[in-house]
Structure formats: C-alpha cells, structure tokens
Amino acid sequence: MVKTSDKASVAALVSICYGQGLRRVIISPGSRNGPLSLSFKEHGGFDVQVIPDERAAAFMALGMSQFDKVPTILLCTSGSAVLNYAPAVAEAFYQRIPLLVISADRPKEWVDQLEGQTMLQNGVLKNFVNKEIDLPQEPSDEIGKRFHDRLVNEAIAACQYPVPAPVHLNVHLTEPLYGLTEANAEVRLIEEILVKKCLPDESLIKELLSDLKDHPRVILLMGMHSPDQALEKTLNGLSSKGWVIMNESSSNLRGDKIISCIDRCLEAIKTENEELLKPDLIISFGGPLVSKKIKQRFRKDPPKAHWHIDAHQPHIDMFQCLNKAIRVDPSLLLAALNEGLHEMKSEFQDHWLEISDRSIKNHFAFLEVASWSDMKAYSQILDALPSQARIQMANSAAVRYVQLYDHLRNQEFYANRGVSGIDGCNSTAVGMAHLSKEPVVLLTGDMAFRYDVNAFWSNQIPRGLKCIVVNNGGGGIFRIIPGPSASGHLEELFEAAMENSAEKVASLSGLPYLSAKNEVELESSLKELFADDATMVLEIFTPREENEKVLAAYFKALTS
Amino acid sequence: MVKTSDKASVAALVSICYGQGLRRVIISPGSRNGPLSLSFKEHGGFDVQVIPDERAAAFMALGMSQFDKVPTILLCTSGSAVLNYAPAVAEAFYQRIPLLVISADRPKEWVDQLEGQTMLQNGVLKNFVNKEIDLPQEPSDEIGKRFHDRLVNEAIAACQYPVPAPVHLNVHLTEPLYGLTEANAEVRLIEEILVKKCLPDESLIKELLSDLKDHPRVILLMGMHSPDQALEKTLNGLSSKGWVIMNESSSNLRGDKIISCIDRCLEAIKTENEELLKPDLIISFGGPLVSKKIKQRFRKDPPKAHWHIDAHQPHIDMFQCLNKAIRVDPSLLLAALNEGLHEMKSEFQDHWLEISDRSIKNHFAFLEVASWSDMKAYSQILDALPSQARIQMANSAAVRYVQLYDHLRNQEFYANRGVSGIDGCNSTAVGMAHLSKEPVVLLTGDMAFRYDVNAFWSNQIPRGLKCIVVNNGGGGIFRIIPGPSASGHLEELFEAAMENSAEKVASLSGLPYLSAKNEVELESSLKELFADDATMVLEIFTPREENEKVLAAYFKALTS
Questions:
Q1: What is the pLDDT of residues B428-468, one digit of tens each?
Q2: A-chain residues within 8 Å CB-CB of B115?
Q3: Per-residue pLDDT for B32 more than 70?
Q4: Residue A195 resides in a domain
Q5: Is B29 on the interface with A (CB under 8 A)?
Q6: B86 and chain A in contact, CB less than 8 A
Q7: pLDDT at A196
Q8: B43, B80, B320: best mutation site toward chain A, by most A Cβ within 10 Å?
Q9: I want to staple B398 with a disulfide (CB 3.0 to 4.6 A). Which of A44, A158, A519, B394 is the partner?
Q10: Residues A389, A536: one domain?
C-alpha cells in the first residue's frame, strides 16, 4: 500500500508531478515541507536526494536538468531556505534550464506575524521564473480542488514554455503536518499540446536569401548550445557556402572549418589583415558567449548588419548594430538558408581559416616549450581527458583557459555562463555526475572549489566525478584581466589571496585526494585520476605570479 | 594624497557614506565592483573586510550591525553575487537591522544581452528592504550629479526609517573600471532630522488606563529586544502593579519577577491551576518570540483582549484575538502606563510566580541527576559562560534549549529569529566578534555549524569567538518537535543524519579545536575554552537517541 500525506492537495501535487513525467526530487530538510517530503518519498517513483544546504541543492538540480533537460524538483522548507535557491535559479533562467521549485510556507494568516521561519515568500524569485504560483490554501470543495490541480499542471507545463526555465510553486501548509493516508490512484492530468517548432515560411527564407546576396562576407557566431547532430551538419554545410563559423567549447558543435577557439584565433591576427577580415554581416544565435574579445572587436568596428536568431528573445544587440531580430527557431532557419545557398569559394573565409591555422601551429609550438604554469597545466589536463567526458568548466579562469585549446568531437562542455557566478560550480558537476554514465570532469580553481564546499555535504556523493582544482593561490582571473593588477590592491581586494586547500575540502567530505606541482607529477596523477570511476580531487599547484607572464607570452607568440 | 575612482559618481557615493557616519565595508571580490572596492579602500576611513562568499559576508554584516545598530556596507560584484545576500537581508529585515547593500551592475544597455555576470538585478531584494534605488548611470551634468547625490543620501537615511532595515543600491558601472584620481573633499550631505519617538498623548494614556481597570489580569509578553535599562526599570515597575511579565533570553531584560523561561514555566503547570492562570488581557511588544507553547496556549484559549504595541507594524495578531493595534513606541507607552498605575497585590501574579518557582526548583533537581545528554551539556555550558558574554544562539535546537535555563543579568543573548534560518549562524557570530570587546559565544549544533562553514573562509578571523558545537549527529531539532519522529523517515528526510565533523570544519579554517564526550571532559574543556581570548571550537558529542528521552523526562519532572 502506497502512503501519502493526508492533505489532499499535497497528495495531488505529488501525483501530478509523477503523471507529468517528473522523476527527481532534491529535498532540503525542514519541518514545514514535511508533508511533501514524506509524500515524495513514500510514492516510490521518485529518485529522492537529501541535501542540507539549499544553495548547493539548487545548483545540483541545475546540473541534473542541464544533462537531460527534464525539470528537477527542488523542495525546501519555509523562510530563508528558498532564498538560497536564488543563485542557481537565476543561472538556470539564463541558461534556459527547467526546474520546479517548491517552497513550503506557513498558512497565509501567519505571514509577517512574528512567527518562526516565516517571511513574505511571494515574488522572491520573480525575475528568474516563467511563472510563480501561490497555491490556494487547503481547498475544501470540489471547485477549489480542481482549481488547485489545474494550477499544478500549469506550473509544470510552464517549466518548458515559452522557453525552458524555473517555475516557483509556493505551498502554504497548516499543522498538523505529518498525517499519512492511503494514496489514491486518481489524478487529474492536463496534457499540454505544444507545437514547439514553427517552420519559417517560404517568403521569409526568400527575403533573407536575397539580403544575403548583398552581404557576401558572413560570420555565423554561436554561443552556448547542446550537442545537436543535425545542426552540426547544417553548420558544416554553411561553411561550404563560404560562411565563417565561430563558436566555443560550450557550443558543443564541431567541424573542420569551424573556428572553436575564438580568442586564440583573434589574438593571431596581424595588423595587415584587418580590412580583409571585416564581415558584412554577423548572424548570431545560441546562449551566452565567453569571448569578450570578439564582442570588443565588433563593438569597436561594427559590421554593416547584425542578425540575431532566437524563437523567444531575438533582441540581442551584441554589437549595438542589430538590424534584424529574427524570432524563429535557429536550427530550422539555418537549415533552410543552407539549402537555399550555393557552394562557393570565399576569400573572406580563406583569410580567417589561415589565421586560425596559424594560431593552432603557434599554439602547439608555444606549449612544447612553455614553463610550468596554468597554461601548461590546462594543456596537459585537456590532453588527458577521456574521449567521452562531460566537462564542467568553473567560472572564471577555468572557463577562459579552456577556450584556448581544441576539443574532441565527443566531449561535451558545460559551464554556468548564464550569469557566470562562482557560486555553484561544484554542485552543478555533482548533479550532472548523478546522471551521466560518462565521467564528469570539473575544471576549477581554488576559489570556486572552496566557495562551493557544501556541494559535497551529502550522504549520496555520486561516482565518476573528477574534480581538477588548479590552485594558483586566489582569484587568478584578476591577474589575467586588465585593471586589477595595476590597482595596487590586487591581492587584497581582488584575488583575495588566501591559502585555499583543496586537500582540506576533500578531507572534510571524505574524498580521495591527489596533487601535482609540476609537469611530471601531473602526468602521473592524471593517469591515476582516470584509472577508475572513483570520485576524487586532483589539486594542481601553479605559480601565481608566473601564470600571467606565461599567458601574455602565449598571446604574443600566437602572431609569430 | 587620497585617491578615489575617476568616476565622479563612485567617488561621491563613498564620500557620502563616510559623511553620513558609515565606517564598515565588507567587500566580496569581483571585477565590476572594482571602482567601489578601490575607493572604499583608498579612502582610509573605512574598516574594510574581504569575504569571498557573499552569503557569509552578509550574515557577518548582520552580526556587526546587530551589535551597534549602525548600518554595515555590503559590496558585491554584478550577477548572482547579490542573490547570495538575500538570506541575511531577509533576516536583517525581520530583525530590524540596518544594512546598506551595494551591488555593482553592468551598464543598463548590456542587461539581458547574453553578457557575462549580468542579470536583471532590480527588485531581487524587494521584499526585504526599506528602499531600492537603481542609481542613474554616470550622470554627466550638474542636475544629474545632484540627483545622484540626493539619492545616495536618501538611501542611507532609509536604513533607519520607518524602522531600521536593509536598503539596496544598484550601481551600473561602465568600463574602463579602474581609473583613479585625487579625491575631492567636497561632498553634498543631507542631514535627516527625524523625531524618532512620538510621545503618546494624555488622552490615549487615560483611555488605556481606564480600559486596564476592566482587565485586571494582565500578561505583558515581550519578544526579542536589545538591552535597555530604562525599559527594564519600567518592567520591574509594572510587575509591582500586579502584571505578569514574560520574556525570553533574547529579550535581554531581566528582573526578579520577570518570567524569562516561558516554556519551562508553562510545562510546570498542573491541570488544577488552569482557570486561575487565565489573563484578561495580553499586551505584547518586541520582536519574534521563540516559545511556540505560549502561542499554542493562547490560540487555543484566547484572552478577552490582546493589545500589540509597535510604532511601525502593530497588527501582530498573535492569538487571532487582537483588538488594539497600538502604533506608538512601546517603551514610552509602557513607562506612561506604569506611572499611571497603582501598586497592588495580585493573586493572578502570585499563581504564575508560584509555578515559575516550582519550575526552577524542579529544573535544578532534575539536572542534578540527569544523564549525559544535550540537556545536561547545555546546563554545564550555561554555567560556564563568562558573566559579560554575548551569546549567539543558532537555529534551531540550540536556541530552544537555551530557553530552559536562567540567564545572568549582564549576558546578552542574540539569535537569528527574524526568519529563523539555519543558514548564517556562524557568520553572524563572526561579525559580532569583530566588534565586541566581550567574548562572543556561538551555541550551535552540528548541522548549523557545518552549513555555514564559509563563515571562517577569511584572512581576518577575529579573536574572542568561542564556538560551542553540540554534535548530536544531525538535525536533533526534528527529534524534539512532534511529528517527524513518528514518520518512519526521521533519519533520512529530517535529521539528514550524517557525520558532521566540527573538527574537520575547524581544521579547514585553521581554528584550534577541543572536544568532550562526557560531563567530566566538558567541565575541563570549558575551562580551557574560556582561559584566554583565542577563537576556538569546542565540539560536544551527545547521544542522539538519548537526548529526546531526557528532554521528555525533564518536561515531566517539571510538574512534580
């Protein structure tokens, strides 16, 4: 016999979640959310995890839903608990990842009445959700119940529309909280029928193809994206039509003529090439871009035209010269344009590819002789990654370094670049490792690793997670971006230079630990790290002050 | 020569903060907030702390401003950073503690444009601030500058009006960020002239005194409060007029006839007394109350009348029988009532004090022979506390246990009972220890201590902080409140039973560590703990399953 809360609305909520295909719940312990915790657990159909720190729990949910695009349910108690979800909810919103946030609340009559664990919970996630619903309190008649059930159905559907994003359900619960009763199989499900992809019509394609004739030099620029074989084929097709295709590690689409290391390529440009490299048109799509250099380049010297393609929010005025905001699915539109275009040789493309080739040659020449540094360490790490690894790049030095190296076809790259916070990189990787059969590799720095120490505060740490911590003694990112180093307060105000021991973090959570402080040690510890599927921590010590010099020398070497 | 940002608005903001008397800034490192970080640091007049985890930083600020009621400035970078402030900001709001939250932001033209570390920051703290101001972006003319400076002045004043609370300033900053220039002494200050206390008029006093004649049996119930000698005198005066005065450790006002252990007293009531103990009127004031028992008692059997006194929000309908919401300063009103009343003997008061006396006698008799448990450990701890200690009680078992013991006159008790979250108890204590000359004692459990591990992630851990961690192997609170223990999932879903090692947390942060697992060891380790002003951790191991039995036996013994 399956049990459930004796509160009919709670029982219905849990059944509807299951009926709508949700299968994962991350619970942060509390009293007020007890009826929901018990019902999700007793149901038997959910994978239930218990994570005490709500901030970590939410980033873990993000990592799970980043993996399979299915909403993960987050469940917390009343009071400030739900506020700790906010950083991950904002990140999920900007990455377009669905999450169903359920916060328990006191009955409305006790809000703002000096009660314990009670605050005004409405609107606290408002900027970062598709929908927020304050569920009606304990409906007692049939109309109230059917209203309640419709709202729950609607909330789950809103996790996917207009684009995937978090949804917030606030549930007022009255004492006594813990009564259980026999579960009833009956549940009201509303199936949402949604035409997800609207085909662009013929006349639009015709118009755009005609416009493209006036803009022969095209750069197609893509940001963060999920792996997508059909789209990859389209991109490779478009590159045979003379387009220059640029993307990044986290675009997860590769091709011979796709320039996937934008910064490395831009740094290899010599001054004489500038005029030849200027596009008539930039077409952009996908999520956030890591490269600041490309934004700076085309903000300073904007192309004649910029089109951004997005079915939901096409007004992305990246270079302040946007002239077409194309509200349509990018894959469908690009496929149609690819079909309508003819193969052609393009000098414009040749120039770009020549520079890209030069950057690759110089890149390898430099690394051959580079001294021990972040740059060198990342090169060894990336060479050692399993061919099917899922790589989580932490903000912010890690994700920037990775952009300089080539990636293997079947590796997948993820990063919290929606809001680019340092706050939940570990937990996101933990969440993904719970689902991924392939190893998940977290590439991070000592600050980000220490920040999210509570990612490992759990009785259920998954296997297969490899945490690689490049310890350069503080916020190394501030040494490699211009400004802070010259300020005279670099170490105190920016790097927060401190001894962050990944070893102690590993010890706190009982994780096996390896370390390396030079090339030879790194070589062998990487072998050990990937020898089996044990979750472990590898800490790599690099010289704080040397790193920036090596990086500067690298950028200089790219033009040689 | 004092330097400051070459952005005139940033320079002005920093000067106005100083001119308005603010002296403390907690900075969480970032790039976008660089101009502000540099200007606060270069100014020379601010105590600048650098705390990488914004959640911990904000609770630390709360602990500082809880101590001296002066707003602490919190400064973070753009993106999710400010969201990590939310739990402490909500707590400060409900505790009425002033904070000035400054979040750096990208220029408006780059918000929601796929930029790094950028999100919609407006409104994210809306529920928990007196005011939110999005400062105008780089004012270039005189009108714009004067507008900007007025807004900054207004924001600082809003930290105190209508009641002390957080204020959120969002500051859009354009690159280049790090230019410095010579500071200019000129600054526009607006002095706010505020009549803080409005005297209640004669006719009101007269009316209330007349009402009191119809309600001879009065309970005066006070929640959280700061130490206040004048008010303490008033309360002692009112008790000589026959009133029953009840408060809690965190009320910080003591007196011979003040019942400061509400739950202990209520549990000592024998059934025959009930009718004699019924008040005609409850008058309440102050912040949140910990005791659930008193709320339950009078919700079940409400008095004829309930008055709540508060100058800002008097509609606190604690027993759902509120009939006067008195919008006036409680100290002034109570002093006036005290003056207008005559001394009298009250049987009602005698009955209550008799029960209270019985509870004290039974309390000591029980503890004399109690076996090793949370109950016993807290008794030893409270006996050992320095006579002037500032005690930070963590949520939630710690704060509940402390309510059962008597407190010394000059000790001060604090707890995050605004929202009662587990999330920042360590950091709040760290913040207070930065300012307090007296030792600060954190009384906490293993879950709360581990949750806020990043409280100690700092290069500037203060001296004089004594962390006492009662380790009962998980969320012990869920064993002592009814419900979860009977659910069949107590350990997994509620206690989150796990090995939380305070020793490893101490080691992560380089703090000296002591431990005790019985009465004898505790005796000697408490001596060692308070032997000097070193900050250290004392972990006390108590038997998880025994604790609830001892507590149940204790409550039973109170009536004997």
A1: 999 999 999 999 999 999 999 999 999 999 999 999 999 99
A2: 288
A3: yes
A4: no
A5: yes
A6: yes
A7: 67
A8: B80
A9: B394
A10: yes
Helix extents (H) in A97-141:
none
pLDDT tens digits, residue range A308-363? Answer: 999 999 999 999 999 999 999 999 999 999 999 999 999 999 999 999 999 999 99
Structural domain tally of chain B? Answer: 3
The answer, as to whether pTM is greater than 0.90, is: yes
Distance CA B285, CA B283 (A): 7
Structural domain contains residue A187: no
d(CA A345, CA A364): 28
Interval A544-555 mean pLDDT: 93
CB atoms B508 and A453 under 8 Å: yes
The token pair that represents B56 in the structure block: 């911990």
Q: Helix or strand or coil: residue A438?
A: coil
Residues A85 and A177 in one domain: yes
Cβ of residue A520 closer than 8 Å to a chain B Cβ: no
CA distance B296 to B277: 15
> What ipTM was reported for this prediction?
0.96
Q: How far apart are the first and last CA of chain A?
A: 74
Cβ separation of B86 and A124 shorter than 8 Å? yes
- Is pLDDT above 80 for A475? no
8 A C-beta contact, residue B34 and residue A483: yes
Q: Indicate if B384 and B432 belong to the same structural domain.
A: yes
Q: What whole-number distance in Å separates Cα of residue A191 and Cα of residue A174?
A: 30
Domain span at B336: 202-346
| Nearby residues of B122 by Cβ (< 8 Å), 6 or more positions away | A127, B132, B134, B170
Nearest in space to A270 (alpha carbons), one of A346, A369, A351: A351
Q: How far is A258 from chain B (nearest CA, A)?
A: 21
Output the pLDDT for position B196.
Answer: 67
Helices and strands per DSSP (H, E), number in chain A: 19, 20
In Å, what is the CA distance from B244 to each residue of A36, B225, B259, B290?
41, 18, 8, 18
Does a structural domain hold residue A514?
Answer: yes
Question: Minimum mean pLDDT among A412-426, A479-493, B491-505: which range?
Answer: A479-493
To the nearest 10°, the Cα dihedral for A490, A491, A492, A493? 40
Instruction: List the single residue in B with minimal CA-CA distance to A446.
Output: B52
Mean pLDDT of B500-512: 95
Give the whole-angstrom CA distance, residue A90 versus residue A387: 31
